[in-house]
Amino acid sequence: MSASSEPTATPDRPGTVVLLLASSTGGVGQHVRALARGLTAAGESVLVCGPAATQEQFDFVAAGARFQPVEIPASPTPADARAVAALRRVLAGEQVSVLHAHGLRAGLVAVLARPAAPLVVTWHNAVLVGGLRGGLSRLVERIVARGARVTLGASNDLVERAAALGAADARLAPVAAPTLPAPRRRRAAVRAEFGVAADQPLILSVGRLHPQKRYDVLVDAAARWRERTPPAVVVIAGSGPAYLPLAARISAARAPVTLLGHRTDVADLLVGADLAVVTSDWEARQLFAQEALRAGVPLVATAVGGLPELVGDAAVLVPPGDVDAVDAAVRGLLDDDAGRAELGRRGAARAATWPTEAETLAQLVALYAELTSGPAGPATPDADAPSTGRR
Predict the structure, then answer these.
(1) Which residue among 20, 100, 127, 350 has its CA within the 20 to 30 Å range from the CA of 153?
(2) What count of Cα atoms within 13 Å lies in the side-chain half-sphere of residue 217?
(3) Domain architecture of the chain: domains with CATH
(4) Which parts of this chain are annotated as the region Disordered (predicted)?
């Protein structure tokens, strides 16, 4: 699907900003939609390219952008050649000012397409897998790092990784979680949906059901909370490939956990929650962690990736993969009403210091202007070019 309007140009920077993403059902797609909305509101011509399924889920056209399908699967396959060819056809029909790819998969396709316009790649995730697949992913990292004019990392560890792999210009670009709509239900109504009594703890986690999120750790810890008086109830909002294994684990452990599937009422769920938990093996600036702190919901999270720099002392941090640590942290907060309330207050205060969506957008607009205002004009990226240092 694509919008019918023709590309326009602005006096300051003629041409179209092309935003490219691969398969996404969560944070990357939300971020690209927010950028598309903000850029078009600022008068930019924006074209989003990615799998047709992303348009169906995030509706970039409703955000003001045009859309052209470029099918980039979640993992490298021979189909990447078709994606590169499709992107080249799209770029050939546009007056492109900047091509901005989101994620390593989209970054690889963008580098291989060799665009004439400056290429920006945002790294949203770290490579966690090992073996042959991990080796291939690390090769992709190197190609993308060396092929982009500017590499943006959503957290400092990603910036450092890109620079170490030869990125010519690696910068921090924190991704702000979109502001949630106002809740539509009261706390009692939300809790009634899950049969939670007034004195019963409700623990919430939100995210894609993927092995990286380590919901198995949360399920194993929750099985212990069944014996609490009153017992805690855990709900996990999200969909993904780990649904069936998690459902089986919940059943086998008789854990008080409900998988809610995809939800659009996270603001309501936060109103009903006593505690938020993130058990991931790695995150940059996880959207749910931001949402929880903004809502003043106390958070237990793993000390991985960009989470410590995100939350500071406004959350209880635990080692990844440690069921005992999650269990102890959650029990400690549930048994300390005053401590839980104080943590919620610190979380809201911490959230007030984060960059807003508007500030994130302004940083990118300034970067695009920087890349297109030089007298030499845009350069074609070269994946084999040596690094010239880190910014």
Answers:
(1) 350
(2) 26
(3) 16-176+356-372 (3.40.50.2000), 187-351 (3.40.50.2000)
(4) 372-391
